[in-house]
Amino acid sequence: MEQSGTPYFCFKDLDENKPVASIKLRVETIDYFLKQYRKQIVREREERARIDRELAEYEAKLRAQRKAAPPTRGYGDSKAPQAEAALPFLNN
Fold this sequence. Notes:
Layout: H1 19-68, H2 81-86
């Protein structure tokens, strides 16, 4: 599972003396594993949703700040000759 990201299980090496008990134990093990795997998937999905929600809130906050802030001069602004002198490759 670690490499492929999907659950994998095989029934080789069953106990030949008690195959029914061996199969029952394997089925219980598979059931437990799948329940744990489902919990992990749900946790990861909730975590991703929380992160997406926080990012959206942060983006909205930054956009609101940007709208409220006065415009700043860029590197290509003719009123900022010191920026052009400091970065001559921008004049090309």
